[in-house]
Amino acid sequence: MGYSRQIYREAERRLEIKRIKSEQELDKRRELLFARSKRAEKITYELAHTTVLAAHIVLARGNVREEVEKLREKNIALRMELYGILDKLGLPENYLEEWHDCDKCNDTGYIDGKMCRCMRSLLRSTAYEQLNRSSPLSISDFDSFSLEYYSDKKDGGQSPRDIMARVLSFCKKYADSFSTGSRSLLFQGGPGLGKTHLSLAIAGKAIEKGYGVIYVSAPVIFSQLEKEHFGRNEGTGTQQYLLDCDLLIIDDLGTEFPSKFTVSALYSLINSRTMSSKPTIISTNLTLSELQDTYSFRIVSRIIGMLSRVGFVGNDIRQLKNKKHKGE
Ligand SMILES: Nc1ncnc2c1ncn2[C@@H]1O[C@H](COP(=O)(O)OP(=O)(O)O)[C@@H](O)[C@H]1O
Ligand SMILES: [Mg+2]
Ligand SMILES: [Zn+2]
Predict the structure, then answer these.
(1) pLDDT tens digit sequence for 112-128
(2) How far apart are CA 234 and CA 225, in angstroms?
């Protein structure tokens, strides 16, 4: 996928920060070493000095070969001594070299003018970060999801807690084994039951694994699709990301103001993604019949047909938390 110049600039800026950091870290390591060994400091200084000397000899055109050979031997002896000191102190051989995240390109992003793999993945993650800038990604995770909020009173054999325990374990498994071949899901249930929470938790895991994830609310995606339709959306490339990303999360379906056009655009978006086996997770507070009333029966059936339904039950946790907060 092509990236905008702004994304390139941002990725290059990040690499530069990395390089500056590794220089600073080297300075720190050097100071620490010199505090422990005066001899190491002396050798480091002399090693720097021998390089300068070699340059002088070449310039002076004296008995160049002999002098340079002597210096070379001295240089080797000093290095060996320095390695010995590092070894005694339990430090690695490369202690006085810059440490890079990527040894292939030394964090420059390029090898012989060709883009390094690390740069490719940095561009990708930078682009996805920018796309998710205004969304609450990283707010929710599995660890902060508690089953205590769901009643354990059995209603016909199963309590809400039993059901939600299964939902939670399903979502965890889904996230752990997430790949571009994963199935698409429909999170359905009343407000405040943890749909957004769990979809963000899945997003977090997928991002951790290096997948490109986009999280959007239905009103945002619908206005995007509409802009594209009327050709007012110039060069943001967002549409392409909606199609290309590894996981698309559409939250709060049913809260937007639907038009005939946007609903069929949504259908074709999910359809194209399904065809290229790219999963989508949709959340909605609406029941099936409410969805069918809001959109058309035909389109809703076709969309539902591409998703596996995950039903959320219980009492509004937002309200439960507020009550607890007020001490009621
Ligand atoms: N099982 C849970 N444990 C802890 N907090 C939860 C749980 N479910 C929901 N919440 C919190 O309650 C609030 C509403 O949940 P949310 O996921 O937004 O509900 P929904 O999307 O189903 O309307 C959020 O702040 C969320 O983090
Ligand atoms: Mg929600
Ligand atoms: Zn690299």
Answers:
(1) 999 999 999 999 888 88
(2) 12
